[in-house]
Protein 1
Amino acid sequence: MSTDTVSSTDAEARARAAGVPVIDFDPECDPRFKDDPLGTILAGQQVGDIFYSTAARGFWVITRHELFREISQATDRYSNRETFTFYRDPPDVFQMPANLDPPDHTKVRRLLMPLLSPAAVKRLESRARASVARIADEVAERGSCDFMADVALRIPAEVFLEHMGLPLSRADEIIATRLLPGKLNASNDPGGVQLKAAVAAVRAMFEEVLAERRRQPADDIPTYLLSQELDGRPLTDQEILQLCHTLLGTSLGTTASTMAFLFKRLAEDPALRHSATSTPEMVGGLVDEALRNFPAIPLLARTVRADVDFHGIPWKEGDRLLLLLAAANADQDAFPSPEQFDPQRTPNRHVAFGLGPHRCAGAHLAGMELRVLVEEWHRRIPDYHLGDLSDLTHEVSVAVRMTTLPLVIDSPAPSFS
Ligand code: HEM
């Protein structure tokens, strides 16, 4: 059915009748978003556990960890067809498996998972280590960097290229789908012209490697997908290309964003940096706390599949939901003193990767890249501070990202200088 079957005024009337707060909550368009995206989203916590926003097409907003869990797990009741598009515009891209519902979702997800299993990720770890080591050495030599462009986007791009069976020399083409000269995405690219060209170039790259792997199989994503079946028939080229785009689209900006948020925090806090980067156990806790505090995907959309009573509120088929993932991660019932950044927080049941059947398929990969970055970087560059942040702002597509993060290196580790 059309997502517009339920009018926002009808939903608003139901909200008022149920005693649910109704406000114009529109973080994406809030002028404060560019400076403080997560704070703008977290403001929703003050409104209530559930409220209705009249912004855009109208949507119910959910702020609590427990409710986030309930909705994320009930894929029979809440559709993912609009997830990753945010609340403002209806989707113009369809991602497999992110926008699929069961049973199709289950089939595609099962097909993808061997590529992202712990064993598959282990095989990519040496690539990640070598990339971080080389990049950190270059930065140490130079004495400064734009961490976002020079490090955070480059590491997941290089790991992705290795996984795709493509040479690292193509990293700039991959990164161009995220980084436009000077700034990220829409702000300096009217009509998205440069972005479209970058995406077309990457598509050509994928077509090239697919044709090559048909002739000569290797141990990589295209070779694996060429061997897979869906509903008893081989995947079409179109499906394979779409899955390659999904793997790129979901892995690059999200991981880079988390890396940048974490390194900004570490650059600001030498005591934390020294205590939390020293042992592998500490690094694991640091990465989890970074994911909790700075969830790169802070909002998730769902659509109600059939009329349902949700804790006394009558939701109707087609109602839109906005799950404030960032607020679930800052829910004091789930995380004592949620405002504190505590790498030793135990347990840390953050939902930065989502929950339930759509939980991030790349969680192991992202976790490995973050861990390896912290370990290898700090062996080489223990001390650094923030540079001039006057150009720093935040943008949102699926992930919330910094446009730039200037870092100045204080001194490389003696053995690496
Ligand atoms: C720190 C980095 C990352 C974060 C914070 C993140 C976050 C998320 C979240 C919140 C979802 C759930 C969407 C929903 O419930 O609708 C998701 C889904 C997904 N992620 Fe990630 N992600 C990250 C890295 C990655 C990486 C490295 C990959 C590797 C390819 C990846 C692949 C996917 C895929 C394929 C889905 C769709 C899963 C499904 O619908 O079944 N992600 N991610």
Protein 2
Amino acid sequence: MQHVVVAECRDGKLRRVSLEAIAAARQCMADGDTLAVLLLAGGAEDAAEATHLACRGPDEVIVIDHPILARYTPEAFAAALLAAAEALPMAPSAWWLGHTAIGRDLAPRLAARLGAGQVSDAIGVATGADGRVRFTRALHAGKALEQRALLPGDPWVVTVRPNNFPPAAERAGPAAPIRSAAFNPPPPIVRVRDVVRRVSTAVDLTEARVIVAGGRGVKHADGFAPLAKLASLLGGAVGASRGACDAGYCDYALQIGQTGKTVTPDLYIACGISGAVQHLAGMSRSRVIVAINKDPDAPIFSVADYGIVGDLFEIVPLLINELISTP
Ligand SMILES: Cc1cc2nc3c(=O)[nH]c(=O)nc-3n(C[C@H](O)[C@H](O)[C@H](O)COP(=O)(O)OP(=O)(O)OC[C@H]3O[C@@H](n4cnc5c(N)ncnc54)[C@H](O)[C@@H]3O)c2cc1C
């Protein structure tokens, strides 16, 4: 069976979720299965990332490098993937993508083109004794888990949630071969003129290992400044509740929850967030949750591993000082 991981670059850097998708694919590969990574590159910087992929365990890396792929358009990306797949010795049966903005858009399009089944936002994968691959997904705002089983041999397309699989590690030994595939882009239906970033952060929220999130308790836009400082010291990103976004303290691009982003960082620090069920839906699977809230009865404490009852404007500076003074 041929597995294919679709690797994604952003600003010339390989996205971590692509390495996680390789690890997820490896988890359910049987003897004799092969794994190819398809890298769609919009220039030399993206294409150079193929070397990082080649030493993470695929059997080969196929690069399609074309200027049209510098910005995402559904038609061009889908056509490029199908062109790359034709360069494989065997038609792929299993496609793996990150559950990113691009992956979410591309996967159903690909599945429809291939007549394949599709599973979105997998947080776990395993092969049962019967040889069937089972994907775990979170349902009903994370309150329930479902398993979807697929028959081996039937084609499928799956997206994996960032930060849920350990990224494929570098392997000793020779790297996989890297080759290029030809691509004639279809006539464009969509032309992207410009990409306007509403929030520019060094760390992508959905892939961040540490998130410092603020709620209505930050009181005003400037209240996010200490949170941003703490996040930066921890190498993380800033997030927010909808309460904070609705109040105009920050951009909706930072919203975490049922109608915002779903995140699974190693550490989630919730500052002045009550812990409404819609917020928990987007962050309750974080590995360690720290809550800072003035109200000891705030529901956020029911999911927190560590709780600090107090004023965030006193606690967060203390944490910052501690981090700065620790060598
Ligand atoms: C259909 C639907 C979808 C929704 N989707 C989302 C979603 O995706 N994400 C989301 O977050 N919400 C969502 N909501 C809104 C959600 O129900 C809550 O209203 C929202 O999460 C509340 O935000 P908050 O916790 O910041 O504010 P509040 O509930 O007002 O909580 C503020 C907290 O800050 C604490 N506090 C105040 N001052 C301080 C201080 N100085 N120090 C420490 N603590 C302090 C208070 O004790 C309080 O607990 C949705 C709601 C609906 C109906």
Protein 3
Amino acid sequence: MDPRAAFEALGTTEGRQDPYPYYDAIRAHGDLVPVKKGSLVAVGYRECTRVLREPALQVQDGTAFDRVYPEWRSHSSVCAFTDSMLYSNPPKHTRQRGTVNADFTPQQVARMRPVIEDMTTRLLDRIADLGADGSPVNLMDEFASRLPIAVVSAMLGFDADRQVWFRDIASAIAVSTDGFTDPAALATADAAMDELADHFGDVITRKRGCPAADIVSALVRLHDSDPAKLSHDELIGNMMLLLTAGFETTAFLIGNGALMAIDNPRYAALLRTQQPFAAAYVEEVLRFEPPVHVTSRWAAADVTMFDQHIPAGSRVVVLLAAGNRDPRRYPDPNRFDPGRANSQPLSFGGGVHFCLGAALARLEAQTALPMLARRFPQITLADTATYRDRWVIRGLRTLPVTTGRAVTASRR
Ligand code: HEM
């Protein structure tokens, strides 16, 4: 298949349902493949890694948007992302990321373990009630999507009673990361962002009057002490980013991990009984079914790598999910194997934008999946699990299960 046709197929419903054959079709033409004038696609593990670490290949910031989509300023959801660290380049990116880096180190995040355990126990209690009469329970709605938003809300210092609202708002806003292809979805994202920004205004006022030991209180203090360190728009943009970036992604990691364990009782048994297995299992779920399939970079200057000349202004699409299945890096890449040594999947990106929340996401999944397996040893699929019709952030829409007997008493 022509690489351009394979790449374009990734934007279709068929491509989104199963993108892997199209990744292989592009890979058949090389590991860094021109697909049209001014656009290359990185599919190899080594190529994706290198692109993400090349300083001249940058994220699409306001200046890049001005070139390709000048109307972006009329979309509040896109503006908020553009004010955040994810859509900024150094030195602005370095300054913004420095405001929260220390809150997300593995050591700092490890302190959240008891909170995550407690939240997981409460969610499992609720699922035990919902499924006690044999009714099917959608694990995506009742578990996978609830835990990440509860955890990140606690870290940021948001109201616990707004978690379901945050979850729905975050889902609507995240659509704007899929590009500008769907005007209706973008309008929904903008409306959700406006609502969220109003609420953030109230939160900022409250934290200013009554600061607490949470991330948003610290960011408000920093902004008030010196807006050059963090402007008002950057404060809102990064509050939105922290809320949304870790929500759907971690929900999909937990959902994918749960599905794989329900389908393979051997893995469920190991999760139940062997604590160290959880880390290897979660790494392989990340490699095999990464929640973020793709990101991209723009050439701020001419670059040459792997014998390809990349002129300034070109776009390089980084297929993280394809790099994770590069046969040169992972023997038998389409086989799920938690026994792989030194895996290091590309699922959290790389370089200066390496996922800020990687340690948190891993901890949530490594905690939640064994607890789920222990609590419901008879859990089975009640119906086929279905994928959402999206590509960039890809994961399950439904995971209907019958819980069977719940064995572990709840701990509160
Ligand atoms: C399984 C879960 C997650 C996955 C797969 C994931 C994936 C990613 C990826 C691929 C990037 C880099 C994007 C790029 O380079 O263009 C990224 C960046 C980011 N992630 Fe995550 N993420 C996850 C969870 C989280 C969590 C829990 C948080 C925080 C609460 C978070 C916060 C961020 C932030 C703030 C950035 C931007 C970092 C920067 O630009 O310097 N993520 N994530």
Protein 4
Amino acid sequence: MMEPAYLTSTRASYDTVASSYASLVRPMYDNKPFDRAMLAAFAELVDGPVADLGCGTGIVTGYLAGLGVRVSGVDLSPGMVAVARRDHPELEFSVGSMNSLDLADSSVGGVVAWYSIIHTPVELLPEIFAEFRRVLVPGGHLMVAFKAGDEIRHLAQGYGHDIELDVYWLEPDLVAKLAHDAGFTEVARLVRIADADEKGPQGYFLARVPDVDES
Ligand SMILES: C[S@@+](CC[C@H](N)C(=O)[O-])C[C@H]1O[C@@H](n2cnc3c(N)ncnc32)[C@H](O)[C@@H]1O
């Protein structure tokens, strides 16, 4: 089957920016206390192995590992995965798509999708959330970071390179509905206003799969 065009352009764009992405993005986290707080809450709640889906160069993967989480990363872009392996040789990373994960049903205790659902057309997001749900155990946690809004922005430039990338800004209520429809129970959500290096509000959404005796 032919790959959808958005996956091809997303992969090509991140392959192009991979070399500069980590050095430009990593230092930002020093000034993002709310991002770190959400990840810390997730790290405290989660039990069992965590899959960081759309892990990019492994910045969040490494951060969670530093909090004691057993975590590995998956990303569409071989270029991003190569940088993740270079920067975090102690962690496991693989190339793959969260549209169809190479993970067994009920095999992970946590899924992180940190700004990685933002390139998927909205009408395809139910498939992605169903895939998150499929791989999580009962009681497992899902942590999603996204750009909060309701528009599509096309990027022809990013991280100092020419790219072709659509970014889907998502209303928090839509993210909550996608999670609910996939079988998740909401735990917490946060919207913070834009920092100086951002173009709009940022959203964070934490949910869990009901335990067997809850569903
Ligand atoms: C904005 S970057 C975020 C990377 C990382 N999570 C971080 O916070 O630094 C988005 C990443 O999601 C990946 N991605 C986008 N769609 C994907 C998909 N369908 N499957 C796997 N990875 C995907 C991209 O290749 C890219 O590395």
